[in-house]
Specification:
Shape: globular
Distance between the termini: 5 Å
Number of helices: 3
Order of helices and strands: HHEEHEEE
Number of domains: 1
CATH topology: Herpes Virus-1
Strand content: 15-25%
Largest sheet: 5 strands, antiparallel
CATH architecture: 2-Layer Sandwich
Number of strands: 5
CATH superfamily: Zinc/RING finger domain, C3HC4 (zinc finger)
Structural class: alpha+beta
Length: 86
């Protein structure tokens, strides 16, 4: 894993999750594969293996670049802007 400029700009401490699941998937009756947590605002969205890719859409809509896995026991982060694990 490497550091990127986007990681340096993240709020500390990281934001609390706004939900425990992808609320957009839940509202539409869809199922997520895995969850991602936005490290800028706390939004929780589904991963790109999920049908609707809400985490990626959140990045496109907001420009918030870094999310981390919101799965139990996982702490890895992904920078959408750089397209890499950070």
């Amino acid at each position: 894993m490497s550091e990127c400029q986007h990681v340096a700009d993240l709020p500390r401490p990281e934001p609390a999750p706004l939900s425990g699941t992808c609320l957009e998937c839940e509202a539409s009756g869809s199922h997520h594969v895995q969850l991602r947590l936005c490290l800028v605002c706390g939004y929780v969205g589904c991963c790109d293996s999920s049908p609707h890719r809400h985490a990626s859409r959140h990045f496109r809509d907001t420009g918030h670049p870094v999310m981390r896995s919101h799965e139990p026991g996982e702490r890895w982060r992904w920078c959408f802007a750089d397209g890499s694990i950070v």
